Every structure is written in structure tokens, then in C-alpha cells.
Amino acid sequence: MANNDESRGLKSLLDWFANRRKSGSTIQERQEREIADGLWHKCSECGVLTYTKDLRANQMVCAECGHHNRVDSDERIRQLTDPNTWRPMDESLRPSDPLQFRDRKAYVDRLREMQEKLGLTEAVQTGWGQINGLPVALGVMDFRFIGASMGSVVGEKLTRLIERATERRYPVIIVCTSGGARMQEGMLSLMQMAKISAALQRHREAKLLYIPVLTNPTTGGVTASFAMLGDIILAEPKATIGFAGRRVIEQTLREKLPDDFQSAEDVLKHGFVDEIVPRTHLKQTLAQLIALHQPPALTPPHNLVMWETRTLSSTVAES
Length: 319
Prior knowledge:
Layout: H1 2-36, E1 40-42, E2 49-51, H2 52-57, H3 73-80, E3 87-88, H4 107-118, E4 124-131, E5 134-141, H5 152-168, E6 172-178, H6 187-205, E7 210-218, H7 220-223, E8 234-235, H8 246-253, H9 264-269, E9 275-276, H10 279-292, H11 301-318
Parallel strand pairs: 5-6, 6-7, 7-8, 8-9
Antiparallel strand pairs: 1-2, 3-4, 4-5
């Protein structure tokens, strides 16, 4: 009789463990399913689970550790511009395949795949908008589109943005992120560095403001050109900023680089950026900088003529 009781107790205990294991598996599956459905986001830095809606309300910045998650160009435009003020430009410009390039797949197929998946024609969006009521010309790069590599259309869209901003006397803001030049377009890609830089020089000669915002990562030809030509250069915390990759530099120098090498904080320490601004403060910071650097109002031409006329009349009377 005692043996039967012991066997029943053992069986109950085994059943309890089995049920607990099954219950735990069900809970884990439910959690994984909820995360997969996009309800929750697990921070890649601290591992904290955050309700996705709350994370977006905090501009995709982890409230626990301050980690800045990567955001796409549409989200960035919503974060920076006032509601209903964004007016895109040059949306019809599309890249071609002048070299008929092919790696693992044809370049034209890669472009078509990105365009259909993301709803973008290229790795940058450009247009007009307002930041706290102040008009700006805004360009936003999108890392999802072939690593935001700089091809001919990226260069053309940014150049047109800058030239039109110069005509309208608007400040220019470019949110930079890129893996470098687009190798599928060869020399045509590298030419964009000089083209954009020339447009920025004309913008500067007109005494107008240009602010690049460096986000994670900003590397290659973008860093070697317009990302470092700003009047005021801002960066997001812990963004990777550099030209060549860390591994390439270590192999060239044959020495180990510091852990924070090419981080925004390290670049700031060496004077390559002016300030690191958290994303939650970026819009307000940009608005303050734009307001401080508004171009002076031009004197109407008829006033200038009247002044010259009075001066000449006075001179004649004195003689």
C-alpha cells in the first residue's frame, strides 16, 4: 500500500514538472510570438523589453540605457519636421546600370528588389520642410537601401537640394548615414563627392547655413565629402564615424585600436564634430541653430537707389 502511494506521489511530481515545462514553453512561445509581431522591442544593448509604441514615442531611443536604434528615412522626417510641412522633391529620379554590373545578382535586380521592398527610389529622400516654423532644405539618407551607399542619383538629389536651397536662401540639413560609395557604379559614384562639395561651396559663399547630422554609421565617401563640410557638425551618441573600416586600419597599422575608436565620442574629442546631440533633443537644437543663423533681410532695391540719389545730390550741393 505504501509503495502504491509512493508511486502515485512520484507520478504526480513528474506530471507537475512536465506541466510546468509545458507551461513555460507555452509562455516562451507566446512571448516570442508577441515580439515577432512587433508589440515589443528588445534592446540590443541592455536587453530590456520595451513596448514598441513607447519606444517610438521616445524616437526609438531606449529609455533604460539611451541606445539609439536605427530609424528609416520616413521616421526621421516625421521626427524632425513640423506636421504637414514636408514637401518631397525629385521623387522620379531613379538609378540606372551604366556598367551592367553583377555580383551575386544583377545590379538592376538588386535595385528593383530594394525599391519594391522599401517603397523608395533611392537611398536618400530630399525636400522642403519646417522645423519649429523655420523653413529648411532637408536630405535624409536611408541605410536600408543598399547600405545608403552613394550612387549617382544620391549625389544628384543632394546637389539639386543644395542648389535650390541656395536660390531660396534656405539652410540645408543632411542626416547622414552610409557605408560608402556604391561600387556597382564605379567612378560615377566617386564623382558625386566632388559634385556635392562644389554645391556646398557655393552655398557657403552665399553665407548660408549647412548642418550635417552624423548617425550610425557614417563612413566612406560620405565622410570624406559632405558629412565633414558643415558649418556646424552634429552627431548622435555612439554613432560610428570614419572613412576606412576598423579592421582595414588595424591591418594597415598592425596594432590594436581603442574600443571607442571611430565612435562619435572619440571623434568629438579629436575635434571632427562640434557636438553630440541625443535624438530626443535634435529637433530643438536644430531649430535654435537655424534661428541664430538666419540670413539678414536684404535692403529693398528702391531704398538703395533713393539713398544713392540723396548722397549724389548732397555731394553736388557741397561742390
